[in-house]
Structure formats: C-alpha cells, structure tokens
Amino acid sequence: xxxxxxxxxxxxxxxxxxxxxxxxxxxxxxxxxxxxxxxxxxxxxxxxxxxxxxxxxxxxxxxxxxxxxxxxxxxxxxxxxxxxxxxxxxxxxxxxxxxxxxxxxxxxxxxxxxxxxxxxxxxxxxxxxxxxxxxxxxxxxxx
Length: 143
Fold this sequence. Notes:
Blueprint: H1 2-55, H2 64-69, E1 83-84, E2 87-96, E3 99-108, E4 117-121, E5 124-130
Antiparallel strand pairs: 1-2, 2-3, 3-4, 4-5
C-alpha cells in the first residue's frame, strides 16, 4: 500500500512538471517575439541612419561607431556588435560593382528559446527573416 502511494505521488509530481512546462512555453514565445520587435525596430533605425549618412557622404555607408558618433544612432550602437535584448547586430560595409553597400544582421544570442534571424541591406527597406540560420537577401520578407 505504501509503494502504491509513493508511486501515485511520483506520477502526480511528474504530471505537474509536464504541465508547468506547457504553461511556460507561450510565455517564452511572447518574450522571444518582444525581443524580435526590438531587433526589427533597430534594423529600421539603422537603414534610416545609413540612408541619411549616405546623402551627406558621397553615397558611402558607415559603421555602427560612425553612425553613433555622428548622431545618426544613439549610444547603444557605439560598438562593433551592438547587443539589444537577446539579439546581436553585425554590419558589413563595402563597395562592389554596384557601388557602396551595407548589410546588417540581427541574430539571436545566448541560450534558451531562440528567436528568428533578420537581415536588411542597402538595396531594400524590407527586412528579411530566417527561422533557423542567419538571414540573407534571398530569404522571405518578414510579415
């Protein structure tokens, strides 16, 4: 009888743990989506800053530090790889056959539930998204 009571208690405990895991999943998804909103908002701000910088700098684009130092972005961006919420931003600037360009990624950082990967560049104001790996110009536009 005691074994049966212990077994019932163990089963009840396991079911409680499983139920708690299912309750936290929507909360984790909500937090990930909020972090994604911060990342996509930052990408829009970066694109606007780059366009403004380009107008007064012969069509060239700038690093995060140059944009922050010139007042185009705030001090959060005054580093080589700004971190906003659970996202790390990276930027590449250069010049190719079509002239100067920039490419900017927002990728999830850290452990735990991961958000999606985002990308924007100088050829479009649309943000691209990839659920599993760094996004690129060939990925779909985020909805």
